[in-house]
Amino acid sequence: MAVLAETRGVAKHFGALSAVDSVDLAVSSGEVVGLLGSNGAGKTTLIRLLLGLLRPSGGETLLFGALPSMSTRRRVGYVPQTLGLYDDMTVQENWTFTAAAFGSARPALPESVRGSKDELVGSLPLGLQRRVAFAVAFSHNPELLVLDEPTSGVGPLSRARLWQDIRDSAEHGTGVLVSTHNMEEAEQCDRLVVMVDGRVAAEGAVADVIGSRTVVQVTCDDWRRAFAVLDADGLVVQVQGELLRVPGSPRQVEDLLAGHDLPAAVATVPANLEEAFVSVVSRGPRP
Amino acid sequence: MWAMIVKEFRQLKRDRRTLAMLVVLPVLLLVIFGYAAKFEVSNIPTIVVGPQAEQVASQLQGPFQVVEVDPGAGKSFVESRLRDGKAVVGLVTGQRPLLALMDGTQLFAAQAAEGAFAHMARAAEASGVTPPAVTVQILFDPKLMSSWIMIPGLTGLILLFIGTLITSLGIVRERQSGTIEQLAVMPFRPWDVIFGKIVPYLLLASLDLTVIVGVGMLLFGVPFVGSVATFGLGALLFLLVTLGMGVLISTVSQNQGQAIQLAIMFVVPQVLMSGLIFPISSMAEAVRWIAYVLPLSWYIEISRGVMLKDTPVAALWEPLVVLAGMAVVVLGLAMLRFRRDLAPSARHGRVTAAQPEPVSP
Amino acid sequence: MTWGLESASVRFGTRTALDRVTLRAEPSTVSVVVGGDGAGKSTLLRALVGLVPLSSGISRRPSKEEIGYVPATAGLYTDLTVEENLAFSGGAYGVVGSELAHRSTELLERIGLANARTRLGGQLSGGMRRKLAVAMALLHRPALLVLDEPTTGVDPVSRSELWRLISAAAAGGTAVVATTTYVDEAHRASTVTLLEQGRSISTGAPSEIVAAVAGKLGVVRSTAQPQGLSWRWGSSWRVWSPTDVLPEGAEPLQPGFEDAVIIACLADEQEVQPVGRAR
């Protein structure tokens, strides 16, 4: 698989603030890479470096084996979270405008959005607007796609259909970089990169990121009191229905609950991606 | 309601631009209208005609500057000279009293001339001489304005501005940011929210009003000869109309841009057609009715009457009643619309079974 | 006391925004409403708190003094400080003086803003803003807490902190109703309502929604789209058959909650548009 986009020890400083610090990242052809991180972790800066919208303070960025330039822009498709469509133009007009901007031949609108070609983009439901934005970004057959929160705000079925579009283009050889806060979306990626404070703190497939992390699952008839006890001790308790999930050691949890006469079943279970993410972030970047 | 008012003032304190508008705009308007109307005129081009032209011309002192003397000419000659702009004042002698023609379009010069005649009359009286009788006839613009006349009107303009523009912006901001939803759900009665939004602006407008009247009196010597209570009543009624208009505008605007557009559409005609700048009597009959539907016209009648002429409240019943009527209609309409936003479930009785449960203790 | 909506409909002119939706909000439980943009989530919450009149059905809610509501768009004033925001909310609900001071300190410590009392709402990050908005709605210990998309656009760390705050309210006896577009958040709820085009297409505990799946689910590991009703999951396909017959090449799979949600949406779409409009 050919590497399409690559950063080598790339860094970006804004004054004293180091937004991105020696990050190595590669997106290969046909691959869907998920970029995770809290707000301010440096995801947006990294994407802007990769697209050549920012000049790195250190290290280098390579797009298709060369430094980002006007000519590499034609080979990249980008869908910002705000979609970048004109609300007051029809689907067809948006399409034609983008085709003209990229100087591409005028291919016909894809089937997925053809049904609403004469409707104003602003009047469409958000799920369909996102499909239009995808279609527009895909129109010039980009080799690299960068998507920021691609399914934010849409319902489950629309989300599945948008991912169908993403997967389709990956299967045609496009490399896809998805920045997201959504764990369901992250779980659909081939590989994840987790950023903390401008550095890569974890990477790999979903299972690699979770690793051997576990949480303590508490089943207790009086889950409310159990929650109050654990919460008061400063543990980050998460409630699932009437189950409690707590990071930490089962002994500590058992002792705490027993100390308050709360009979409970305590088990150690594998962490989910969100719990793993929180654990990665709270531990900070790896040395 | 107290929580609303405190919140509103805290927000206003942070909103530097609105604060600046509240302070700078009145001052700016005062300076422009007040000082502009107070220009000292030292030379008034004057022509003197008629049999005693030579004699009268020799008696004229500053600011009159005699530019032409023609004992053989008459009134029609003066008129044509004034029309051509060769002079501002023309004295026609040979008749008793003397006739002074003035060019009303030369506002400041004409005012100065009027003043000078009055001064001459007083001086003559003081020295025990029978003052020369002068009949003043103003051509082209028979109603002269002065800063005396401008300041009372100006107070209305500022009330209009605060009431309509700033109030509607304040409410629309709340709608645009979505916090109005929350206010509707909080245990406020709709009136709490409505008055909580209006009262701060009412207070600010009253403050601005006091400052302007005060500055007008100190700086420009505008008299305030009438009853403060009558003036206050008129201002309050007018302010209620403009606040109501502001609320009404906010209920039909989705964003601040729309609110500004509508407020401008409401304010500009009043500036032009209420008699603030151009006298209503000089308006064409066909459009004069417009002035009578504008609240500012009525307010100006009250404020000029009270401040300058000590018009008693009984003589002002007409504008007061009109303003009160407008306030009831506009404010009522605004309240109903605003209330609908705040308590939609109370909109009509079509809700078949939606009743909140009694409060559980 | 159980709050909620019973067979509630809301019509705006000729458009039906909410169509006979039932939602229960019980003390000490979290009910989550899942749906996309335009599904009617906000209308449902607005109907619940009384911002929108019902055209039919019943709405049971406590008095205004006992509701805490955070709309999707805001929840706080960006031009007031953290402290002033809390004071305003307190004033509105009659929480003043030492009670306000005590409660504010407690909540600010919980949401990690104890040292940011004088910061303006507008200077807070998105996640912090949402936390403060929820804290403001919790200040008066409401019986019913209604949150419209509290976690949309919030990063996972802030999200789990928000949920900890929400869970604590539920553990303290508050009935919580929250909407979300993230299906995985529904796991946190005791009851989930799936909303699609103003209709509730499935409701119950997450396990009940999974148990309610009819037909068969299969996984197809190929790049070509299989016959029937299918969607992508990672690099493979999921295929669902309303009957018990799976297409050839599909391995049967026990549906998870996410699968169950998509199946419910697909089944609903089939029912509404039986022709199976190609999209």
CATH level-3 fold name of the largest domain in chain A? Rossmann fold
CATH class categorisation of the largest domain in chain A: Alpha Beta
* Pair with the biggest interface: A-C, 53 and 56 residues
Intertermini distance of chain B: 24 Å
Instruction: Please give the count of helices of chain A.
Output: 11
If strands are numbered along the chain, what order do they take across the biggest sheet of chain A? 5-6-7-3-8-9
Number of domains of chain A: 2
- Cα radius of gyration of chain B in angstroms: 27 Å
Residue runs with pLDDT of under 50 for 5 or more positions of chain B: 345-361
- Helix/strand class of chain B: alpha/beta
List the defining traits of the structure above.
heterotrimer; A: 287 residues; alpha/beta; Rossmann fold; Alpha-Beta Plaits; 2 domains; four-stranded antiparallel β-sheet; 11 helices; C: 279 residues; six-stranded mixed β-sheet; 13 strands; globular
Architecture overview:
- The complex is a heterotrimer of chains A (about 290), B (about 350) and C (about 280).
- By secondary structure, chain A is an alpha/beta fold.
- Chain A has helices spanning about 45-50, 70-75, 90-100, 110-115, 125-140, 155-170, 185, 205-210, 225-230, 250-260, 275-285, and strands at about 5-15, 15-30, 30-35, 60-65, 75-80, 145-150, 175-180, 190-195, 200-205, 215-220, 240, 245, 265-270.
- Helix content of chain A is about 35%, strand content about 30%.
- In chain A, a hairpin with a 2-residue loop joins β11 (about 240) and β12 (about 245).
- In chain A, α3 (about 90-100) packs parallel to α5 and α5 runs parallel beside α6 (about 155-170).
- Chain A is globular.
- Chain B has two domains: about 1-35 and about 145-345, no CATH class; about 45-140, no CATH class.
- Chain B has 13 helices and five strands.
- Chain B has helices spanning about 1-15, 15-35, 55-60, 75-85, 105-125, 145-175, 180-185, 190-220, 230-250, 255-275, 285-295, 295-310, 315-340, and strands at about 45-50, 65-70, 90, 100-105, 135-140.
- In chain B, strands 2-1-3-4-5 form a five-stranded mixed beta sheet, sandwiched between helices.
- In chain B, β4 (about 100-105), α5 and β5 (about 135-140) form a beta-alpha-beta unit.
- Chain C has about 280 residues and is α/β, with parallel strands linked by helices.
- The radius of gyration of chain C is 21 Å and the shape is globular.
- In chain C, the strands form three sheets. A six-stranded mixed beta sheet of chain C has the order 5-6-7-3-8-9, with helices on both faces. In chain C, strands 11-12-10-13 form a four-stranded antiparallel beta sheet, with helices on one face.
- In chain C, α2 (about 80-95) runs parallel beside α4 (about 125-140).
- Classes of the chains: A alpha/beta (about 290), B alpha/beta (about 350), C alpha/beta (about 280).
- Chains A and C meet through α6, α7, α9, β11 and α11 of A and α5, β11 and α7 of C.
